[in-house]
Amino acid sequence: MAEENILTTGGHHIEEGLVHLQLAEDAMDICRSMSLWPMTFGLACCAIEMMACGMARFDMARYGAEVFRPSARQADLMIVAGTVTKKMAPAVVRLYEQMPAPKWVMALGNCAISGGPFKFKNQYGIIEGVDKLIPVDVFVPGCPPRPEALLEGLFEIQQKVSGKRWWPVPEALQKEKF
Amino acid sequence: MSQIPVELVKILIALVAVAAFVGLNGLVLVYLERKVAGHIQRRPGPFEVGPHGLLQPLADAVKLIGKQLFTPKNADGFLFWLAPILSFMPVLLLFLPLPFGPKLTGMNLNLGLLLILAFSGLNVLATCLAGWGSNNKYGILGAARAVSQSVAYEIPLLLSVLAIAFQTGSLNLSEVVAGQGSWPWQWNFMVQPLAFIIFFVSALGETNRAPFDLAEAESELTAGFHTEYSGMGFGMFFLAEYANMIVVCSVAVALFLGGWNGPFFDGAWWFLAKVYVLLLVMIWLRWTFPRVRFDQLLNLNWKWLMPLALLNLLITAFVTKLS
Ligand code: SF4
Fold first, then answer.
1. Does residue A107 sit in helix, strand or coil?
2. Rg (CA), chain B
3. Ligand 1 neighbour A88 (Cβ under 6 A)
4. B99 bridge partner residues
5. Which of A81, A104, B155, B291 can bridge A46 by disulfide, Cβ–Cβ 3.0-4.6 Å?
6. Are B218 and A70 in contact (CB < 8 Å)?
């Protein structure tokens, strides 16, 4: 059964501003990137890694992203942490649409990216990739991704929002990417 | 041209000063709260945004201002947007009769204490309207809880304050402070320890702080009465909560802990220092205690705080009459 039959995909609609002030908008973007409040929202095992990220050893609070808001209305960042089943999919879309703009989505783990270990021929239970439902900004691969990877994903979103990488790049990544 | 009354100008200046004070302290308290929470859980808390994360609350505030404002479908738009304003505005008034220093009072009122107690009730109304107006089941549940909780905790709060009023024979906060000495053993809380404890516990209940934050209990009610508020609507509630914390702590300091009296140098700094110690205790309580259940919350109030406060009041009246 195709996804289109049971689901509407989430939209993202922002009206253009009337006035554009470059400096003010840049400042605003920096502030936004420095206070990305995620939603308290986990779907499967990857959510455990997300919780680890808020705790003592990795501590997302250092970058101002530890304020997990239980209400979608106050969240900026949706971390899709885990398997999106077809039962859960309408709820995911609805939560995404309940978030006020500007909002960002991070697909955490292979399940959210492509269906991960549950993707096989004739499977009928899961959505193969959350990007079929809602626009995703950053994909963080791994099964599950380590907390460092989640932090890296967060920095990636910060870069996307404010146009600048704020923190030093770890050595292992430097060799790979740059 | 008719003359502008001097009193009005004074009140206006005081209000502007209070607004600045509340805004500044709101930022400081957000930072403190997150930092203390971090350290209690053995993590650094906000650290990278500005030196030691000092710019974090600023970034949060600007971000909240820049968020989309959202009125849910079927919500009562007028009540929905009235609530955050109504929760924040009266708080500014509450600061007027507070004696920050020997000369530093917005308005030296004879019934200052009464004014504070009367206007702090508006906060409950705002919470109630927020829950009702947003047409959300979690909102309405949170609002219902907030109302029954506030009604319950108002009584021991009033009774403990009344004990002090009996003892000093005044409702003027400046006079109550002036009646206490410079050293800790001359402060009212040495004479009225029970009243102080009751006041502090009920103040926690009144301001909806953990362990009594049932109105916004995250694990059961999503975000309680402010579930549907985005951006600055939520920010206003937040700011009002912190401002209310400052008010109750200031009243506690003025009534029980000697206000601006302190060893060696009397003055506003003693007042602020004591207020901040109490605020830190509040934050400490929030991050170390689990939330109570609703029946426990009301049991604690009706079975312990109320009778104890009454007893305390009776004894105070008796002793005052005798001496
Ligand atoms: S990617 Fe792996 S760890 Fe994450 S939810 Fe899927 S199966 Fe679990």
1. strand
2. 20
3. no
4. B105
5. A81
6. yes
Q: Are the C-beta atoms of A147 and A154 separated by less than 8 Å? A: no
Q: Do A100 and B67 touch (CB under 8 A)?
A: yes
| Mutation choice for ligand 1 from A41, A43, A48, A83, CB with most ligand atoms inside 8 A | A83
Contact B60, B223 (CB under 8 A): no
Substitution candidate for ligand 1 out of A48, A53, A106, A111 with most atoms within 8 A of CB = A111
ipTM of the complex as predicted: 0.78
Residue at token pair 């200052």 = B112
In one-letter notation, the amino acid at residue A15 is: E
Coil, strand or helix at A108: strand
In this predicted model, what pLDDT tens digit does every residue of A91-100 receive, in sequence order?
888 888 888 8
For B18-50, how does the pLDDT look when each residue is reduced to its tens digit (9 = 90+)?
Answer: 888 888 888 898 888 888 988 888 888 888 887
**Number of Cβ within a 10 Å radius of residue A81:** 28
| Cβ–Cβ below 8 Å for A64 and B60 | yes
| A42 three-class SS | strand
* Interchain pair B222, A101: CB under 8 A: no
Residue B103: partners with Cβ closer than 8 Å, 6 or more residues away: none
Q: Based on the number of CB atoms within 10 Å of its own CB, is B207 exposed (0-12), middle (13-18) or buried (19 or more)?
A: buried
Residue A39 β-bridge partners: A69
pLDDT tens digits, one per residue of A47-72: 888 888 888 888 888 888 888 888 88
Q: Residue B275: is it exposed, middle or buried by C-beta count within 10 angstroms (0-12/13-18/19+)?
A: buried
Give the C-alpha distances (Å, rounded to integers) separating B37 from A61, A90, B25, B214, B290. 10, 35, 18, 19, 14
Q: What are phi and psi of A104, to 5 degrees?
A: -135, 155
CB-neighbour burial class of residue A101 (10 A; exposed 0-12, middle 13-18, buried 19+): middle
CB atoms within 10 A of CB A55: 15
Question: What b/e readout covers B37-58, taking b as 16+ CB neighbours within 10 angstroms?
Answer: bbeebebebbbbbbeebebbbb
Distance between B227 CA and the closest CA of chain A, angstroms: 6
How far is residue B130's CA from residue A95's CA, in Å, rounded to a whole number? 21
